[in-house]
Every structure is written in C-alpha cells, then in structure tokens.
Amino acid sequence: MYKRQYAFNKHQKVDDYPYGGGAGMLMQAEPVYLAYQSIEEKIGYRPRVVYLTPQGSVFNQTMAKDFAKEKDLVFLCGHYEGIDERVLEEVVTDLVSIGDYVLTGGELPAMVMMDSISRMVPGVLSNQESGETESFAGNLLEYPQYSRPEEWHGKKVPPVLLSGHHANIEAWRREQSILRTAKNRPDLLKKADLTNKEWNQVRQWRKQWKEEKEQNELLGIIAEKVSEEDCTEQCESCQKYCPVSEECMATDENVRCTECEYLCEACGICELKE
C-alpha cells in the first residue's frame, strides 16, 4: 500500500521531526491510521496487524504456524526512527522482530515472515510433509540429507538410507535431528518432546563432547610444552635461527623468509643454511 496517498498535507509528507528532539524522522500517526482504516473497510473486520520492530518477540516457526491460520494479515513496516507510538497502541496486535539487530526499515523482515508463514498455508507446498519435517518442526533441527551419487569425494551415503527399511530410516533421521539440535542449538531442546531414552542419549553425547574437548585442550598443552623443551637455546647452531634477523624463526619462518634476499626463488631454500 502506498502510504503517501493517505498524507493529509499538500506536500504529501508522512513523516516529521520527533518531539523532544533526536536524530531522524518519525512516521506520523494519521497516514498510518488512514491506511489501516481503508483495509478494515475493505475486508469488513479488524485484521491482525504485525508491527516489525526490534522490541518485539523474536519470530519463530511456532509463530509462523499461528499467523498462517489468519484469513488476512497486515504487516506494518516502520522506517528509520519508526512510527508515532499513539497509532501503534491503537492498531497493532503483534510486535515481532526477526533478530537482535537493527535494519533501516521493516520491509525485509516482513518479506522474511511472509515467506515463512506462506509455507505453512495448506496447498502452498507441493509436498505438505516437507513443511512438517524440516528444521524447527517439533523444536528440532532437520536431519542431514543426501542424494546421488552414493559416494562423493570419498564420502559415502549412510547405509541405512540405502536399506529401504522405512522404520530404520525414520529412527536414524530422528536420532540425527536430536544430535544436530543438541550440538548446534541446545536451547531448542528445552521445548522439544523427547523420550527418556532420547534424553539419556543426549546426556551421553554431552559427556562425550566434554571429554573430547578436555582431551584436545590437554593435547594442545602437551604439544606446546614439547615445543618449548625441543629448544636447545643454542641458537647459532639451530636450523631455525636466522643469522640475518638474529631471531628464532620457528613460528613465523614462512612469513619473514619470503621477502629475504637470501631465499632462493627457484628452490625456496635459504642460502645461508646450506
């Protein structure tokens, strides 16, 4: 809807400076209200109005399913400093954000929401099941997907997907969804409907990941200690000692040597070390 057609001044301005001062312009209440009234008159009832703002609840799949039930849905997009608070109080039913960051206006968030919501409307997707099994369905991330060929770059498709055993495939997909969610989005698991057996599996994975992390950290400490012990401190006879810079090149040899006059461009060997 073109908001300037509802401007009530000869210059068709729909914004003005905010009371109290401050940077930027604010969209006035009257043009927004007139636009809303025209929609209400056209459809014959008060529609649900979504105002896109960082102050709103963060949009998610559950909200998409809820909005998809509406016969009509109005998106109100602010710009720069936003919209006069008084008209928001009068017409807006939902404050929604798509994330904890600021955009120039609400147009892009509205398009994101429209795409997500429309997919939940019956008949929009060619395969209705795909909207029910993808990421965030049941507060779980989607399982990994594979297509032909069976082997690519040495990586093979999991055998269970080639078995033709539908029950085993569904069980594997369920397990992979839980695994991915536990590893990448553990916050979602709090709302997921898991069995006691599945929760026990999550706890085992977490224990395993913790042990692996501690082991990797220990190996890093050991490697660093061994590197320090390998240094004989007899620098002038060490292969890693540079007589030009008179410094140890154990850590950044490749960086410094590339511009050194004693580095042979043909073979890449330091002439002073031969």
Structural notes for this entry:
- The protein has 274 residues and is an alpha/beta fold.
- It folds into three domains: 3-118, 3-Layer(aba) Sandwich (Alpha/beta knot); 129-150 and 157-192, Trp Operon Repressor, Chain A, CATH 1.10.1270.20; 235-273, no CATH class.
- It has helices at residues 29-43, 61-67, 85-91, 107-118, 130-133, 166-184, 186-189, 196-230, 253-257; strands spanning 15-16, 26-27, 48-58, 73-77, 94-97, 151-152, 155-156, 241-242, 247-248.
- It is extended.
- The chain starts with 14 loop residues before the first strand and ends in a 17-residue tail after the last helix.
- The mean pLDDT is 85.
List key phrases describing it.
274 residues, alpha/beta, Alpha/beta knot, Trp Operon Repressor, Chain A, three-stranded parallel β-sheet, extended
What's the Cα radius of gyration? Answer: 31 Å
Largest β sheet strand count, sense and barrel closure: 3 strands, parallel
Mean pLDDT: 85
Poorly predicted residue ranges = none
Give the H and E element order: EEHEHEHEHHEEHHHEEH
What portion of residues is helical? 25-40%
CATH class of the largest domain: Alpha Beta
CATH architecture of the largest domain: 3-Layer(aba) Sandwich
* Total domains: 3
* End-to-end gap: 77 Å
**Number of beta strands:** 9
Shape: extended
The main sheet orders its strands as 4-3-5
